[in-house]
């Protein structure tokens, strides 16, 4: 079985589902001949033709709006925003239509679409190419916000996203697109949405994260283990609807919670998890909840970019603070 | 059936690919041969600048860079026609226009080198221009807004934006030209049609035979020009700017050119377009035709060409050095320009980041 990268897993999932379901259509800027600027759709147009892998005019509003239209007609469009920073013009169509179509028509019309976007920083990209803004979508009811953190989860979660009857925002952490390879059987097996994955068991502190910083959290857990501290690592994977039970169970066991994300701190999705921990696990807590996040600033151009990201050292520091507090 | 509206789009060209005049009514500015040499020189410095940028990127001293190879006539034509008091809202590759307006090559290097200070243009008139717009077409609305401000304040100034063929598909472009028409704004939108939006060819952007005609629906004056012929570009610009300045409204100019390089240094155009097409693009490139014309007029020759090339090289080497010697900003710079005054809560984050930085060193 072939070892593949996260981005190859995206391609593999798209190809699998297109081969097994004629209603799946891929659309976006440069997704056809070029196979996408990151090559996520590489080879798909050759395989499935120009009508199922569609290069669109350069207009994100068009892409998102026709995605809604197609989806309502029973297609399963998978739309690509070329970079997370260019998803803003799609937001009107996503928020005003994709997310609410089912509710406002009492289920008569639905939008079984996927909106994919390469997400986050850390690849030395130009301005507007490195945003982490998943929290803007977690605040919109009716959407699923999904972020894979490994090749296997990219494959399984993307299949699930395409098969899901509701609109899914699928954010791909581009920093780890090609970081490592993993064996991913091309068996069409989806992973469940709406559940967190416990990546590592631990008893002293819970690290909660999603997307690219999963890597730094696992490294932090290793570093903590060297100091005799046992960290549990949770990959949230589907941010909304949130599987809070898995987080609650872990935090109740460890008594300590560190939330890690790339997005700005204020009103980032970590704020939601911290609030839920306060609401539901306060009496099990042994220390205040810690957040390791981006600062409340615009993603800097690349010279200073990494200074804004949650580093392994910052995560270890935060975990140690929760231990010192109790 | 009666006809409710009818339109034509004029195509303007003075010099063919070999630099031969295809019409006799050359615009007045071409009589000043010294000036024409100046335009050629700037086209050349733009090309030398571009080659340096790509070399810097290839040696890891610059991030992703968007080349302007092949756009020299269009860009210098735009910049040279504008008056200092006008305002320019560019996208991300119009260096020829910007150099004319005083943007320094070191500033461009800094921007693509991951440093926000590259946007802090030091020289007028660039200092009152907008910074590069990476989100496609959004700058067109800034030009419309600027033009609205000029109209409200009764200023005789014009707002100019440039946009690609791809970008002309975006709602922002339509919105901008629409309000420009509705409000009779002093705005000129130039579509630099270089045939490609990354890998997507012009024909996938629009079913219309010209992109210029998009302005018809908005009630603007529209023209298509040979974008590799600087005389045509500058003349169309000059006329459009004058009309705008006189309160006669906005224009859409489609400058038909060709992107000779990759979309950016992160792109490989061989994946999606053939060698033949690029060869044809080179046959029509903008420098050769102006050079031939100037040589025929007896004001340019190989010796002058070499001398100017050497001067450009020195200039750019100097700019590259200035760029490379610029120290990275301190970590606090990430926080210092988010608001006019740093809010207390953000100040805490700033102190935290600074303490982390000190600890790491
Ligand atoms: C809103 C938005 N979507 C996507 C992109 C990514 N992108 C950068 S340049 C480009 C193609 C632009 O083509 P065109 O408008 O023809 O201008 P050109 O690059 O040819 O000058 C794309 C899709 C972007 N910068 N902004």
UniProtKB/TrEMBL annotation, chain A:
<comment type="function">
    <text>The branched-chain alpha-keto dehydrogenase complex catalyzes the overall conversion of alpha-keto acids to acyl-CoA and CO(2). It contains multiple copies of three enzymatic components: branched-chain alpha-keto acid decarboxylase (E1), lipoamide acyltransferase (E2) and lipoamide dehydrogenase (E3).</text>
</comment>
<dbReference type="InterPro" id="IPR009014">
    <property type="entry name" value="Transketo_C/PFOR_II"/>
</dbReference>
<keyword id="KW-0560">Oxidoreductase</keyword>
<dbReference type="Pfam" id="PF02780">
    <property type="entry name" value="Transketolase_C"/>
</dbReference>
<protein>
    <recommendedName>
        <fullName>2-oxoisovalerate dehydrogenase subunit beta</fullName>
        <ecNumber>1.2.4.4</ecNumber>
    </recommendedName>
</protein>
<dbReference type="Pfam" id="PF02779">
    <property type="entry name" value="Transket_pyr"/>
</dbReference>
<dbReference type="GO" id="GO:0003863">
    <property type="term" value="F:branched-chain 2-oxo acid dehydrogenase activity"/>
</dbReference>
<dbReference type="GO" id="GO:0007584">
    <property type="term" value="P:response to nutrient"/>
</dbReference>
<dbReference type="GO" id="GO:0009083">
    <property type="term" value="P:branched-chain amino acid catabolic process"/>
</dbReference>
<feature type="domain" description="Transketolase-like pyrimidine-binding">
    <location>
        <begin position="4"/>
        <end position="179"/>
    </location>
</feature>
<dbReference type="InterPro" id="IPR029061">
    <property type="entry name" value="THDP-binding"/>
</dbReference>
<dbReference type="InterPro" id="IPR033248">
    <property type="entry name" value="Transketolase_C"/>
</dbReference>
<keyword id="KW-0786">Thiamine pyrophosphate</keyword>
<dbReference type="InterPro" id="IPR005475">
    <property type="entry name" value="Transketolase-like_Pyr-bd"/>
</dbReference>
UniProtKB/TrEMBL annotation, chain B:
<dbReference type="InterPro" id="IPR050771">
    <property type="entry name" value="Alpha-ketoacid_DH_E1_comp"/>
</dbReference>
<protein>
    <recommendedName>
        <fullName>Pyruvate dehydrogenase E1 component subunit alpha</fullName>
        <ecNumber>1.2.4.1</ecNumber>
    </recommendedName>
</protein>
<dbReference type="InterPro" id="IPR017596">
    <property type="entry name" value="PdhA/BkdA"/>
</dbReference>
<dbReference type="InterPro" id="IPR029061">
    <property type="entry name" value="THDP-binding"/>
</dbReference>
<comment type="function">
    <text>The pyruvate dehydrogenase complex catalyzes the overall conversion of pyruvate to acetyl-CoA and CO(2). It contains multiple copies of three enzymatic components: pyruvate dehydrogenase (E1), dihydrolipoamide acetyltransferase (E2) and lipoamide dehydrogenase (E3).</text>
</comment>
<feature type="domain" description="Dehydrogenase E1 component">
    <location>
        <begin position="40"/>
        <end position="323"/>
    </location>
</feature>
<keyword id="KW-0670">Pyruvate</keyword>
<dbReference type="InterPro" id="IPR001017">
    <property type="entry name" value="DH_E1"/>
</dbReference>
<keyword id="KW-0786">Thiamine pyrophosphate</keyword>
<dbReference type="Pfam" id="PF00676">
    <property type="entry name" value="E1_dh"/>
</dbReference>
<keyword id="KW-0560">Oxidoreductase</keyword>
<dbReference type="GO" id="GO:0004739">
    <property type="term" value="F:pyruvate dehydrogenase (acetyl-transferring) activity"/>
</dbReference>
<comment type="subunit">
    <text>Heterodimer of an alpha and a beta chain.</text>
</comment>
<dbReference type="GO" id="GO:0009083">
    <property type="term" value="P:branched-chain amino acid catabolic process"/>
</dbReference>
């Amino acid at each position: 079985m072939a070892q593949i990268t996260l981005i190859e897993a995206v391609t593999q999932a798209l190809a699998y589902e297109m081969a097994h379901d004629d209603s799946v259509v891929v659309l976006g800027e440069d997704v056809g001949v070029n196979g996408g600027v990151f090559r996520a759709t590489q080879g798909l147009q050759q395989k499935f033709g120009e009508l199922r892998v569609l290069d669109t005019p350069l207009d994100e509003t068009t892409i998102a709006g026709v995605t809604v239209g197609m989806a309502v007609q029973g297609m399963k469009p998978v739309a690509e925003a070329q970079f997370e920073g260019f998803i803003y013009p799609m937001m009107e169509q996503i928020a005003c239509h994709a997310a609410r179509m089912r509710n406002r028509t009492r289920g008569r019309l639905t939008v079984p679409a996927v909106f994919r976007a390469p997400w986050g920083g850390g690849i030395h990209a130009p301005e507007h190419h490195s945003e982490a803004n998943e929290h803007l979508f977690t605040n919109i009811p009716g959407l699923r916000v999904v972020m894979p953190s490994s090749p296997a989860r990219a494959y399984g979660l993307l299949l699930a996203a395409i098969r899901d009857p509701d609109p899914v925002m699928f954010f791909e952490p581009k920093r780890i697109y090609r970081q490592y390879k993993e064996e991913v059987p091309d068996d069409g097996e989806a992973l469940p949405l709406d559940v967190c994955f416990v990546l590592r068991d631990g008893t002293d502190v819970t690290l909660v994260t999603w997307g690219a910083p999963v890597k730094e959290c696992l490294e932090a857990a290793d570093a903590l283990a060297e100091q005799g501290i046992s960290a549990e690592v949770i990959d949230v994977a589907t941010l909304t609807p949130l599987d809070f039970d898995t987080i609650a169970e872990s935090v109740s066991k460890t008594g300590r919670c560190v939330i890690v994300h790339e997005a700005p701190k204020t009103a980032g999705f970590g704020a939601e998890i911290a609030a839920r921990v306060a609401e539901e696990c306060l009496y099990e807590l042994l220390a205040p909840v810690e957040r390791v996040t981006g600062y409340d600033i615009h993603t800097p151009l690349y010279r200073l970019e990494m200074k804004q990201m949650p580093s392994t050292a910052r995560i270890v520091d935060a975990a140690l603070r929760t231990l010192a507090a109790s | 059936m009666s006809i409710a509206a009818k339109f034509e789009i004029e195509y303007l060209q003075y010099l063919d690919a070999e630099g031969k005049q295809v019409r006799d009514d050359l615009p007045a500015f071409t009589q000043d041969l010294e000036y024409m040499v100046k335009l050629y020189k700037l086209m050349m410095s733009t090309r030398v600048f571009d080659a340096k940028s790509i070399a810097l990127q290839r040696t890891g001293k610059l991030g992703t860079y968007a080349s302007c190879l092949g756009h020299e006539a269009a860009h210098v034509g735009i910049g040279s026609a504008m008056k200092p008091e006008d305002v320019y809202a560019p996208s991300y590759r119009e260096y020829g226009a910007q150099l004319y307006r005083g943007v320094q090559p070191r500033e461009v290097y800094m921007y693509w080198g991951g440093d926000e200070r590259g946007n802090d243009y030091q020289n007028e008139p660039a200092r009152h221009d907008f910074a590069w717009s990476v989100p496609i077409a959004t700058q067109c609305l800034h030009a419309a807004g600027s033009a609205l401000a000029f109209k409200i304040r009764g200023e005789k100034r014009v707002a100019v934006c440039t946009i690609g063929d791809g970008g002309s598909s975006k709602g922002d472009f339509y919105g901008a030209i629409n309000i420009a028409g509705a409000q009779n704004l002093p705005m000129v939108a130039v579509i630099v049609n270089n045939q490609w939006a990354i890998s997507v060819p012009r024909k996938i952007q629009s079913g219309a035979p010209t992109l210029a005609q998009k302005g018809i629906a908005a009630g603007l004056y529209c023209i298509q020009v040979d974008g590799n012929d600087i005389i045509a570009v500058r003349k169309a610009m000059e006329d459009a700017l004058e009309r705008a300045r006189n309160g006669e409204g906005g224009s859409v100019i489609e400058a038909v050119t060709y992107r000779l390089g990759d979309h950016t240094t992160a792109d490989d155009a061989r994946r999606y377009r053939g060698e033949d097409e690029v060869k044809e693009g080179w046959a029509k490139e903008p420098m050769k035709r102006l050079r031939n014309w100037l040589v025929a007029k007896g004001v340019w020759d190989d010796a002058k060409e070499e001398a100017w090339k050497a001067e450009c090289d020195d200039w750019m080497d100097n700019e590259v050095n200035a760029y490379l010697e610029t120290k990275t900003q301190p970590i606090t710079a990430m926080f210092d320009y988010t608001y006019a005054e740093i809010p207390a809560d953000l100040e805490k984050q700033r102190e935290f980041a600074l303490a982390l930085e000190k600890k790491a060193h």
